[in-house]
Automatic annotation (TrEMBL):
Protein name: Ribosomal RNA large subunit methyltransferase M
Domain Ribosomal RNA methyltransferase FtsJ, residue spans: 185-277
Active site (catalytic residues): K305 (proton acceptor)
Domain Ribosomal RNA large subunit methyltransferase M THUMP-like: 85-162
Molecular function terms, GO-annotated: S-adenosylmethionine-dependent methyltransferase activity
InterPro entries xref list: RlmM_FDX, RlmM_THUMP-like, RNA_MeTrfase_FtsJ_dom, rRNA_MeTrfase_M, SAM-dependent_MTases_sf
NCBIfam families the UniProt entry points to: PRK11760.1
Pfam families: FtsJ, RlmM_FDX, RLMM_N
EC number(s) from the headed UniProt entry: 2.1.1.186
SUPFAM superfamilies found in the cross-reference section: S-adenosyl-L-methionine-dependent methyltransferases (SSF53335)
Function text: Catalyzes the 2'-O-methylation at nucleotide C2498 in 23S rRNA.
Catalysed transformations (reactions): cytidine(2498) in 23S rRNA + S-adenosyl-L-methionine = 2'-O-methylcytidine(2498) in 23S rRNA + S-adenosyl-L-homocysteine + H(+)
Compartment list: Cytoplasm
Length: 362
């Protein structure tokens, strides 16, 4: 029985499951879900096992909001002996295929975390054995198929693969970012991850570069502003709350104590609009689309708060509202949403228009 295994934040299994089931059905692929609360893992068992690879290729992982990483199973759960685990794994794989990389993974839970040392230790002889058998290519390149070994304990593993061109480059889809000691709040990691995730590195020179102007709505105490300042941008930070002195001292920040829903920039020179206001998601979504359509910014990065239940459904509705506004003005656009690792009860959205001016009066 083949299944697509998806990794998500523990507690979001239902949302991740609802999403893969719906998006698979759009591609005429059907199956049933196996969910276990707070496991951080979703199994989508395929009615027709042959359709697994179609799905891996057809749905861009970037289009899945709640899945951080995924793979198609090659085996069911294998019971490993206490000794010769390496042999048991290589035998289970056979010699059918060459993979370009091996990912040793666990669920993102406390039990999973306690296995990370075991995984690191086992990885060394396992890689060696897989290379010897030519199951793993000698030089890792990320475009080939990636072999996943998902450990539930030291004696239980599921093996599978993903396509290197359509999976996360990070183990379990989790980027490990270092909290910068000068940043005024931990929220800073959210925007750092968002830039890393949504903006291709070879475009940072034009899209995330010094000299650009940015507006940060709901900026206090300045974790997001910090990410813009450290990239050399000039920032207008909007919030009734105070901004960290260290940011004001850079000379790159103007602080305005006004309502983020009423502020309109005087000049059309803003490149980035970022927004972390804790507000109704529909209100934020409408505001972001309005800024883009008016030409008040070129790109927007913002959070949408999630409800307690039916989170996938709610995000779909919020995104649909933005799409409807763009459709009304017949503009081409890019719109992606992701439940990032550093997000909790919110998703991060990136939006930009691909159609240049004329802009609209709204
Ligand atoms: C989660 S905090 C922002 C944290 C900030 N991004 C950081 O990294 O330090 C949300 C902020 O939104 C502000 N806020 C909420 N509603 C607002 C509004 N209508 N106008 C301006 N700021 C608002 C709050 O004052 C609060 O400081």
């Amino acid at each position: 029985m083949a299944a697509i295994v998806l990794y998500c934040r523990p507690g979001f299994e239902k949302d991740c499951g609802a999403e893969i089931q719906e998006k698979a059905a759009w591609n005429q692929v059907y199956g049933y879900l196996q969910l276990s609360k707070n496991s951080g893992i979703v199994f989508f068992h395929l009615n027709n096992p042959d359709e697994g690879e179609v799905l891996l290729a057809k749905i861009p992982l970037k289009r899945l909001i709640f899945a951080r990483q995924w793979f198609l199973t090659l085996t069911d759960k294998i019971e490993l002996p206490e000794y010769n685990r390496v042999e048991a794994i290589t035998e289970a794989l056979g010699q059918e295929w060459q993979y370009s990389d091996l990912r040793m993974e666990t669920p993102d839970t406390n039990d999973g975390k306690s296995l990370s040392k075991f995984c690191r230790k086992l990885a060394v002889p396992l890689r060696q054995a897989l290379r010897q058998k030519k199951i793993l290519s000698a030089k890792g390149d990320n475009d080939g198929a990636i072999l996943h070994a998902l450990f539930f304990s030291g004696s239980e593993v599921i093996l599978g693969y993903s396509l290197g061109t359509n999976s996360s480059e990070h183990v379990m889809g989790i980027p490990r970012l270092k909290f910068p000691s000068q940043a005024p709040s931990r929220s800073t990691l959210k925007l750092d991850e968002a830039f890393l995730y949504f903006i291709p590195r070879d475009e940072w020179d034009t899209r995330l570069t010094s000299g650009l102007h940015a507006v940060d709505l709901g900026a206090s105490p300045g974790g997001w502003t910090y990410q813009l300042v450290r990239r050399g941008m000039m920032v207008t930070s909007i919030d009734n709350g105070p901004m960290a002195e260290s940011l004001m001292d850079t000379g790159q920040v103007k602080h305005k104590m006004v309502d983020g829903f009423k502020y309109v920039p005087a000049k059309k020179n803003v490149y980035w609009l970022v927004c972390d206001m804790i507000e109704k998601p529909q209100r934020v979504a409408k505001l972001m689309a309005t800024w883009l359509l008016r030409g008040d910014c070129k790109e927007a990065m913002f959070n949408l708060k999630l409800p307690m239940k039916g989170r996938y459904q709610q995000v779909q509705e919020d995104l649909q509202m933005i799409k409807d506004m763009f459709a009304e003005y017949d503009v081409k656009y890019e719109l992606y949403a992701k439940h990032l690792y550093y997000d909790r009860e919110e998703v991060t959205v990136h939006a930009r228009l691909l159609t240049p001016a004329p802009y609209f009066e709204l």
